[in-house]
Write a structure and sequence with these properties.
The complex is a heterodimer. Chain A is 72% helix and 1% strand. By secondary structure, chain A is mostly helical. Chain A has a two-stranded antiparallel sheet with strand order 1-2. In chain A, helix 1 packs parallel to helix 6, helix 2 runs antiparallel to helix 3 and helix 3 crosses helix 9. In chain A, 47% of the residues are buried. By secondary structure, chain B is an alpha/beta fold. Chain B folds into two domains: 196 residues, Rossmann fold, CATH 3.40.50; 145 residues, Rossmann fold, CATH 3.40.50.2300. In chain B, 46% of the residues lie in helices and 21% in strands. Chain B has 13 helices and 14 strands. In chain B, the strands form three sheets. In chain B, strands 7-6-8-9-10-13-14 form a seven-stranded mixed beta sheet, with helices on one face. Chain B is elongated, with a radius of gyration of 23 Å. Classes of the chains: A mainly alpha, B alpha/beta. Chains A and B meet through helix 1, helix 9, strand 2 and helix 11 of A and strand 7, helix 8, helix 9 and helix 10 of B.
Chain lengths: 337, 384
Amino acid sequence: MDLATLLPFLVNVIAGGLVLGFVYAIIALGYTMVYGVLQLINFAHSEVFVTGAVVGFEVFRVLTPSPMNGYLKLLIALLAAMVISGLLNVLIERLAYRPLRNAPKLVPLITAIGVSLVLQDVLRLIEGFQGRFDLTYTLPEGFSGKFCGEGSSCVALGNALRTIGLDLQLKDVILIVVSLLSLAVLNYLVNRTRLGKAIRAVAQDRVTAGLMGIDSNRMISATFLIGGALGGISGVLFGLKFGTVNAYSGFDPGIIAFTAAVLGGIGSIPGAVLGGLTLGVIQNLIGVTNIFGGLLGIANLESIDASYQRIGAFIVLVLILIFKPTGLLGKSNVEKV
Amino acid sequence: MKSTALSLSVLAALALGSASAQTTVKIATLSPLSGGQSDLGTQIRNGAQLAVNEYKAQFQKLGMNLQLVAYDDQADPATGTAQARKIAADRSILAVVGTLNSGVAIPSSQALVSSRVAMVSPANTANNVTDRALSNMNRIVARDDAQGPAGANFLTDNLKAKRVYLLNDKTAYGEGLTKEVEKALKAKSVQVVGNEGTEEKSDFSSIIAKIRLQRPDAIYFGGIYNQIGVFIKQLREAGITTPVMGGDGMDSSELATIAGRGATNIYFTTVAAPIDALPAAKTFAANFQKTFKDQAQGFAAFGYDAAKVVLQGILAAHKANGNKVPSRTQVESAIRKGTFTGLLSGNVSFNSVGDRRSATLYVMNVQGGKYQLSARLPVRPARQ
C-alpha cells in the first residue's frame, strides 16, 4: 500500500477520532465542573447524559412528521435536553449530595453510584412502558448525508476535503460546531460573568466565599445546572452521531469521559476538552494499529486491533498519572497548613 | 385399624376408577412462559398444544387420555432444572417438548436422564446440548457448528465473496461462530482480510475506516442484533454498501429498526424458519390464529413439530409394547430410533446422539427494512 492510499486513511481515522473526542469532551466537562466545585465525582453524570439523549430522541420522534426545518428541530432537541438534564442534575444534588455534604468523601461517591443505577432503571421503565428499548434517532433528511456532498453549494470544498481523506458527514460538522459553541459559552460564563466569578470563589474556598456574602448552596446548584445542561447537549450529540441509545448506554462513554477529565487534569475546563480529544484520537489510532503492523511487517502490532481501543485509552491514562499525576493541564493543589 | 380400612377403600376406589376410565398420558412443554422471552416460549407451548389437539382422538381410541402440561422455565437454568425435577416426579408424563434456551436444556436434560424422560428440543442450537450424548436429549434444529460453515458457503456461493472481513462481539457465541466461519472460508481459500473482536456498542469509526481501506466483498459479524444494527447503520452512512452477514443472533425485527435506512443488503442464518417459508404451514398458521388469536411464528411451528415427534414416538412405543401404555424407557428409545413424518419442517430422524440427521438452516435477507427468505441450506451433523 502506498502513501497515496495511506494518507487519506490516516486523516480519516484522526478526523473520526476528533469527532468522537468532542462528544467525550462535552461529557467530561460535566464531570470536571462538579469536581472543580465540590471535589466530588458525580458518577450519575453518565445517566444525566443519557437522559439528554432520551429527551433528544423524544423530541425528534414527536417532530419527525412536522415539515419544520431540520436545524430548528435540533435546536429544540438541544434546548429541551439542556433544561431537563440540568434540572435533573440540580435535583440529584439536592436529594443525594447536599445532605451528605459534610460526610466523609467516600459516602457521596457511593451515593453517586447508587443514583446512577436508580436513574438507569427509571429511564428503562419510562421507555419500557411504551415498549421501547433501543431508541433509534430519526434524524432530519440530509443530516446523515455527506458534508458538502452532491447538490450542495459547496461541492468543490467537499471534494477537496475528500481528496485528503477528510470524509465528513453533515452531522459530524454540526457536532463539532455545537461543541465549540457550548465551549465558548461556558468559557464566557465561567470567566467573564459575576456568576462565574462566584462559582470560582466557591470552588476555591467555600467557607471564605460564604463570609464574602456568596450563597454557596445556590452556586453549587448553578454548577450542577450548567453541568447537567452540558450533559444534555452531549446526550443529543451522542444520539445524533451514533443513531441509537438505550438506558444503559451511558456507562461506556461516561467512564471514558471521566478518564478524559482526569487525563486533562480534573477540575480544568480546557483540560477536559484536551483530554476528550486526546482519548478520541488515541482510541481510533489504536483501533487501526494492526493495519500499520501489517504494512511495516511487525507481527506484534498486527494483533492489536479494535478490541484494544479501550485498554489503550486507560494505558495512556496510567502513563500520564505516573509521569504527571495532576493530568495534562491540571494544577497541583498546595495544601496550606 | 381405621387408617388401614380407609386406605383399602381408597385403593378399591382407584382400582374401580382405572377399570372404567382411560389411562391418562401426558406430555410436557418446558419453555419460558413469563419474563422477557415469554413470547417465544408461549409460541412453543401453543404449537405443541395444536399437535396434542390433533392426536387426542387417536390416543382416545387406544385407551389413552392425552394431555399437555406446560411448565415455565423463565429462561433460567435453575428454574428449568427445578421444573424438570417436577416433571420427573409426575409418572404420567412420558416425554418433554423443550426448551427454548440451550443454557436451560443442558441442566434440565441432565435432571431428566436418570428417570428416562425423553426431551425433544424445538430450538436449542449449542453443540453441547447433544455432544454429551445423553439418551434422552434430541433436537430438531441445526447445531451451532453447522451455522458457521453454512454462513461461509453462502458468502462464497451466493454472494461470490473472494475477500471477507470478519468481526465478532467477543462473547462465547460470537467468537465461536466467527471461528467456524473462518475455518470454512480458509478451507475454500477465501481471503480473510480482517478478523477482529469488538465490545464497542456505539462507535465503529476505526473499524469502518479499515473496511473502507481493505474493500472486502462481504463482512461477517458474529454477534447480536443490537450491536450489529448500530454497526450497519454507521457503515451505510459512511457510504459502504458491502453485504453484511451474521448468525441467528441477528434474527430480530429490531435489527432493521436500529439500522434504519441502512437496513439493506443484510443476510443472516437462522434455525427457526419464518412460517411462510414452511410449505405445509398454511393450515397450521390459520389453525393457530383461530385457536390462540395470535400470529404463529417460527418457534410455534417447531414446537408443533417437536410435539409431533414425541406423540408419534409414544404411539410407536405403544405398538411395540403390545398395545399397552408404554414406559418412559420405551418412549425414549422409540423417539431416538424412529422416523417421524407429516411434519411442517420435513421428516425427522435422529442420529445416535439425538441430532436431527438432516436439518435445514434458513438464510434471511433484509432489503429496505423488509425480511425475506433468501435460501434454505440443508445441513448435517458431523456424526450420522
